Amino acid sequence: LTICSGRKERSHRRRKKGRSPPAKRHRDLDPDISIPDTPPTKSQTSKKKRKRIPFSEEETRALLRGMKRFPTGPDERGRWKEILAHYWDIFSVNNRTNVNLKDKHRNMLASGEI
After folding, report:
1. What's the confidence (pLDDT) of residue 112?
2. What one-character-per-residue DSSP string does 45-108 give?
3. Spatial CA neighbour of 52 closest among 111, 90, 109, 95
4. Digits of tens for pLDDT over the chain (114 positions)?
5. Is-contact 80 102, C-beta < 8 A?
6. pLDDT at 50
7. Which of 10, 59, 70, 99 has the most CB atoms lying inside 10 A of its own CB?
8. Beta strands at 7-9 and 2-4: parallel, antiparallel or unpaired
9. Is the pTM of this model over 0.85?
10. 101, 76, 104, 108: which is closest to 86 by C-alpha?
11. Residues with Cβ < 8 Å from 69, sequence gap 6 or more?
12. Which residues lie below 8 Å from residue 83, measured CB to CB, with a gap of 6+?
């Protein structure tokens, strides 16, 4: 990079006219390998979305009790991990994560439930 009059200028390498681009090496190695010309779509690469399961009354009560018992955690995620671990028997039924608990708390605040 060279700086001229307060503006950055970049030097670019130009390909000589008439030259074809370099061959793709992965095709040269093994012609039997089938490699698609287009990248996979998002639906082909993304994980399957979890089905939404509403919180039960018992889970909501356990979350509220846990928030009283653990007002703060060692870090931002610590509080939710501690609540999840303490009430694991209740939250494990629907495979709840600490993120699910955090989101439920945020939604309860927004709706005025707490």
Report:
1. 93
2. HSPPPPPP-PPPHHHHHHHHHHHHH-S--SSTTHHHHHHHHHTHHHHGGGT--HHHHHHHHHHH
3. 95
4. 555 555 555 555 665 666 666 665 555 556 666 666 677 776 666 777 878 899 999 999 999 999 999 887 667 667 999 999 999 999 999 999 999 999 999 999 999 988
5. yes
6. 78
7. 59
8. antiparallel
9. no
10. 101
11. 83, 86
12. 62, 63, 66, 67, 69, 70, 98, 101
**Among all chains, which residue has been given the structure tokens 């130009």?**
14
Q: Fill in the amino acid letter for 32.
A: D
**What is the DSSP secondary structure assignment for residue 40, as one 8-state letter?**
P
Cα 109 to the center of its chain, rounded Å: 24
Take residue 66 and report the two structure tokens written for it: 């846990």
Tokens 């993304």 locate to 46
